[in-house]
Amino acid sequence: TLTVSLKETLTLNGREQGSTNVKTISDITQVLKTIIECPTSEINIVTFASAATGISTLDQDDVEYVRLTNLDATNYITIGIEKESSTASIAAFRLDAGRSFILATSNASAEHPQFFTSDAAHDSSATQIDIETITALANTGTCKLEVFIALNTTT
Prior knowledge:
The chain has 155 residues and is mainly β. It has strands at residues 2-8, 11-12, 15-16, 19-25, 30-38, 43-49, 57-59, 63-70, 77-83, 89-95, 100-103, 114-117, 127-130, 133-138, 143-151.
């Protein structure tokens, strides 16, 4: 069982404004945890497919939790969430030094990491598409990126 706790502590005008949220994910059978050197040229961090084919290609149905943490003290990393086949799409974001990103995965069994894509702003009818690859690109100097992925290989 994986337990993830997010805690914010903030006192503002003499009043506590923080909170603690806990998510428990049962049936975790494997974990991939590593620290990689992220260069200033784009690299693939992990690939998701219909079946696992090694350490860097994971079965998309087994993925329960993904966290990326930029361990650098000053530089940011651009993270790409990509679908490369058929209808190519990408969502990219800046992961500043010391910050983490948690990729939301479905609570349903046998669901896999997806994201919405649309050309229209605030399009609530957009279709979810499968995430095929997560990429990383350091902005000005090589950065250390911690990758933590929890899997349930019994689904």
